[in-house]
Amino acid sequence: MTMTGDANAPTPPAGGSFWWTTGDPGPARLPARGRQSVDVAIVGGGFTGLWAAIALLDTDPRLRVAVLEAERVGWGASGRNGGFCEASLTHGLSNGLLHYPGEIDLLEAEGRRNLAELVAFVAAEGIDAELEATGQLLVASQPHEVDELHRYAEESAAHGGEVEFLDRDAVQALQPSPRWLGGARSSGRHCVMVNPAKLAWGLAAAAERRGARVFERSRVTALARRAGGVTVRVDGGGVLEADRVLVATSAYSGWLRRLDPLFVPVYDYVLMTEPLTAEQRASIGWGDRFGMSDSGNQFHYFRLSADDRILWGGYDAIYHPGSRVVPAHDRRPETFAVLERNFAATFPQLDGVRFTHRWGGAIDTTTRFCATFGDTLGGRVHYALGYTGLGVGASRWAAGILRDKVLRPQSELLRLRFVQSAPLPIPPEPVRAPVVAMMRDAVIGADASGGRRGLFLRAMDALGVGFDS
Question: What values do phi and psi take at 19, rounded to 5?
Fold first, then answer.
């Protein structure tokens, strides 16, 4: 396998994401300048912020809503991810059972409803998001993972899911690889594939059609409580006087210091191959084009693009000390090399294929591995973050929660423990970096020892921390 480009070249826009080469985001929108008044200011022009603008205006078209994006719409995690849009709100059924056993059936049903509505919305709005309702195939590469996937299929059936366990022969018939020992396949009700950048651009246009004002190159520098609302200050001198503010900046939320204890930004990295030839495509099967993921604690996710490239990402999640999220971290040659070696072991029949794109981006990770919600500045500022890599679908549901905080305080969903509770806080530096390193070493060790969890992970289990996700 070979990669193109200079590993030390400057990072291109959006981390070099392939998705940003597949369409036209349109002319840059104007930045927020001067002083203006709005009912709701939304900080962040990614999935959470855009879905929130749409939800607010679908509920009350009279609202004055402004979306403030520091770069371009979809520039952050929303335009860099793998394009897996899953129904789960809790980062998987097992993680949901660990943290919310009393609410899991409702949360699973809400997740399936949310995904169905997302698919219907994309079709109704005519958004060219390359959406494919393929479902997903989870595969095992170690014997203990086969047992885990069998239990997962049984658990899913008990909670309204549609997951089928597959033995080695069945998996090999779908996608031949020397690594696969078994699998679990879900339907398009559980997972669809999208082009995430095109989805973000389409959501921005949908929000604007409803009357939202979307500002780009408008980095928020400060929030301040004032009588009856919040003052939002934007780099370059813009000021918005807002009744409410929604913070939707996910892993890029370090600007609001009070959110620091809730999450750590962990970098994820991705490779994209050149389009496969007809012969290469035939050699790997994969006729149903489902998204795939292997089942270790360190796992890869992989899928086919609309033009038959293979996206290959994950595995080597990296925390940079100080929780810094900067463009320099979007490229990590040593991780790209690890991904390349693992790709070769998985697809030996594709020897010689080139990687044309490689990029990285930050994921907002909490100690319970799924979204957290809260309020600050006297209840005038509301936030949602912490999707831990499964935000493409869950961000729409979270945006509905933010809408309810503003317009529907009587909503029963706001009373869920999932919404009201907070994850175990993450210590600040200088303690944070060694704790994260210990966690990473522990999950790598569990993979290397047949899934057996060491003392550190057992201690985290006792605290209710979801480091098994």
Answer: -60, -30
**Residues of the chain with pLDDT > 70: what percent?**
96
Q: Are 435 and 441 in contact (CB under 8 A)?
A: no
Phi-psi region of 383 (alpha: psi -120 to 50; beta: other; left: phi over 0): beta
Residues 163, 268 within the same domain: yes
pLDDT confidence band for 437 (50 / 70 / 90): confident
User: Does any domain span residue 247?
Assistant: yes
pLDDT value for 4: 40
> Do residue 289 and residue 354 come from a single domain?
yes
320 lies in the same domain as 352: yes
Mean pLDDT estimate for the chain: 93
Residues 322 and 346 in one domain: yes
pLDDT at 442: 80
What's the predicted TM-score (pTM) here? Answer: 0.95
Domain that holds residue 301: 132-192+264-365
Q: Do 224 and 336 sit in the same domain of this protein?
A: no
User: Is the residue at 3 inside a domain?
Assistant: no
Residue 2's pLDDT is 41
pLDDT band at 466 (very low <50, low <70, confident <90, very high): low
The pLDDT of residue 60 is above 90: yes
